[in-house]
Amino acid sequence: MRRSLLGLFLLALSQAVWSSVTIEHWQTAQGSRVFFVHAGSLPIADIVVAFDAGSARDGKQAGLAALTSGLLDTGAGQWNADQIAERFESVGANFGASISSDMSSVMLRTLTDKPLFDKAIETMHAILTQPAFKEADFQREKKRTLAGLKLREESPGDLADIAFSKALYGDHPYAHPDSGMIETVTPLKASDLRAFYRQYYVAANAVVVIVGDLTKEQAEQTVAALLKDLPAGQKPAPLPDVVMPAKAGSQHIKFPSTQTHVLVGMPGIDRKDPDFFSLYVGNHILGGSGLVSKLFDEIREKRGLAYSASSAFRPMRKKGPFVLGLQTRNDQTGEALQVLNQTLSDFIAKGPTEAELTAAKKNLTGGFPMRFDTNKKLANYVAMIGFYELPLDYLDTFTQKVEEVTVASIVDAFKRHVDLQLLQTVTVGDDAKAKSGK
How many CB atoms lie within 10 A of CB 368? Predict the structure, then answer.
């Protein structure tokens, strides 16, 4: 994101958000779902437009969604990249685009003073509805992407991530990295990006989030201005369900490094899973809370086997990964893996203590309001709520849901969602690990 007068303005002022968030929701005639939160403490609006156009929609052309997203603001309508940047900077606005497995998003932060706001919206409208995908811009971005993919081959952490996703997901659309692979990006053409854009960047496939100092009427007018000229289109077919691994698997990739990267896990849960809160709180205790987690205590504090160790559930539209990870000296890999697996096994069998659960609840609920204490943070949360079709009172009921978690519910949820017989293990490092007794 570019520095601007808005960024300087925000250095002096911070946006406080009420603990109770009222999300208004409606659907446009073209099928776009809109979520609006009035936040009037500052003359600012944060806007997110998200499409079901993430890397899971790449098909056999891995990297296509990421390239499409990356080229949106390199030229649109009558303006080139420099002119687009100048238009945003001249009104103190920040624009950005991002990609994940599930979604592609464009984001705008702008002042709400009408002349400034209108110019920012006009520019964003052109990016959404008239991206140029010019050949020269495409070739430059493709070359940059391929250079990054080549550099990725020198990163043991990246190699571990790629192999881990493949081990968990096989032929599922979640299996490949968002940025693609050298062999899939190389044959891509600008026409592929145009075709992808025409299919997925349509009104029926859009979720629009507006958080800021606007009335509902102004929000409705903003949505109309942003999406006018965008074809209605249709929502894409649902992604296929994730097929669980048939059995446990282990893969080692030799890499000339002093540290071995270790990833262990399996497909976990989707965003709507009713066990989310029990798993979320449980994982906070297992490996999600940093220096006070069980994994950190057993692996780092008691044995000094790694600088850090962690675990996470990453729910997505379909079952996202449950992953445990660490880095350790090559000759300690076997011992570190044994401790990691034993800690997980013990946690599944016994769960946390009541004291650990109480501490986790206090930590999670006490820090939760800070996660959406600015318009921008809140807009991202509302985009998550809207995109994954979660209850509109998700933020208001979060604390209650956390407080309802019990030791028994954690044990039950972990036993049903984490099967030790299906865990996939990926290690990337020097073969000295083979001498460690694993």
Answer: 14
pTM of this prediction? 0.92
Q: What is the mean pLDDT of residues 87-112?
A: 98
242 to 164, 238, 324, 411: CA distances (angstroms)? 15, 12, 19, 23
Bridging pattern class, strands 321-329 and 259-267: antiparallel
Closest by CA position to 363, among listed 402, 395, 394: 402
Token output for 353: 């203590």
Q: What is the mean pLDDT of residues 1-7?
A: 45
Q: Confidence class of residue 438 from pLDDT cuts 50, 70 and 90?
A: very low
Q: How is residue 315 written in tokens?
A: 């729910």
d(CA 186, CA 427): 28
Judging by beta carbons within 10 Å of its beta carbon (0-12, 13-18, 19+), is residue 206 exposed, middle or buried?
A: buried
Looking at residue 432, its pLDDT comes to 53
Q: What DSSP element (H or E) covers 377?
A: helix 375-387
| Paired residues of 95 in beta bridges | 108
Q: Is the pLDDT of residue 276 over 70?
A: yes
CA–CA dist 428, 438 (Å, integer): 14
Q: DSSP character for 141?
A: H
**Centroid of chain to Cα 292:** 25
Residue 287 to residue 264: CA distance in whole angstroms: 13
Facing residues of 427 across strands?
Answer: 252, 262
State which amino acid sits at residue 76. Answer: A
DSSP assignment letter at 249: E
Contact 112, 214 (CB under 8 A): yes
Chain centre to alpha carbon of residue 165:
15
Torsions phi, psi of 351, nearest 5? 70, -170
| DSSP, residue by residue, 56-120 | GG-TTSTTHHHHHHHHGGGEETTEEHHHHHHHHHHTT-EEEEEE-SS-EEEEEEEE-SHHHHHHH
Give yes or no for a contact between 331 and 432, defined as CB atoms under 8 angstroms apart.
Answer: yes
Q: What is the mean pLDDT of residues 64-93?
A: 98
Q: How far apart are CA 396 and CA 379, in angstroms?
A: 15
Percent over 90 (pLDDT), the chain: 90
**HEC string of 182-205?**
HHHHCCCCHHHHHHHHHHHCCHHH
